[in-house]
Amino acid sequence: MSKTVAIGGLGAIGLPLARALDAGVEGLTLIAVAARDHAKAEANLARFRSRPRIVALEALAEADIVVEAAPAAVFESIARAAIEAGRIFVPASVGALLPRMHLVARARATGARIVVPTGALLGLDAVRAAAEGPVESVTMVTRKPPGGLAGAPHLKRHGIDVSGLTEPLLVFQGNARDAAAGFPANVNVAAALALAGIGPLRTRVEIWADPGVTRNIHTIKVEAAAARFSMTIENVPSEDNPRTGKLTALSVLTCLRGLVSTLKVGS
Question: Which ranges of the chain would DSSP assign to H, the alpha helix?
Fold first, then answer.
């Protein structure tokens, strides 16, 4: 039996995901979306084979699976409605989940599930497996074009100007919790890594504004009892939003497929 899907947000993640679902994914049916700009949403959905309804944020919870791909400011509205209804909640803004772990406890009480997609990262299977045993350290170094970091709360708070850079600038060094708070639109990958591994306080993060790169580059290094490994991924930024890599929407789609597939590869 097909599971119904609703998407909160039709931006760089939500719109490609909606298009893919409309094109046809076995076992999944897109029935609703929510968007800040109703007229723009109508235009984007005009050529869909089966147009989903445009609904209020709370009404997304009518679907079996609720995907959050919206600005962090409305994260809790989408999440709470889905969790109270006992749905499967798939957050793209994973960084917004870190300071709201009470939602996990509430999901446990209502029977809801929170399924975090890999996003613009790689190797979370390996990190999760290593975390079943002792882990000494997990570190992530992110390099982004300066324009992809512009406007981040951390930069505003500390008066850091990334425009006109001619060489790489280290703009943040600390734990994953503070990274997610300071760069809510940029490092959801750090939050996903922290949740998969040793937690937001022990996961170390460096963020560089680098005028010499054109892609969002993430390097993970793990020291664990079971293995030592490092991984680097270079993601192409979305044309609609340079803060988000194109891989993110594809990762959410893969996550949704895994919820209904007979054969699922990877943990």
Answer: 14-23, 38-45, 75-84, 102-110, 124-130, 153-158, 176-182, 188-196, 246-260
Q: Is 177 left (phi over 0), alpha (psi -120 to 50) or beta?
A: alpha
DSSP 8-state class, residue 147: G
- Rounded to two decimals, what is the model's pTM? 0.91
Q: Strand, helix or coil at 215? A: coil
Per the annotation, the verdict on 218 as an active-site residue is: yes
Instruction: Say how far apart CA 4 and CA 194 lie, in whole Å.
Output: 29
Task: Give pLDDT tens digits for 175-195.
Answer: 999 999 999 887 888 999 999
d(CA 138, CA 128): 11
Domain holding 104, by residue range, is: 3-120+247-260
CATH of the domain at 18: 3.40.50.720
Answer whether residue 267 shows pLDDT above 70: no
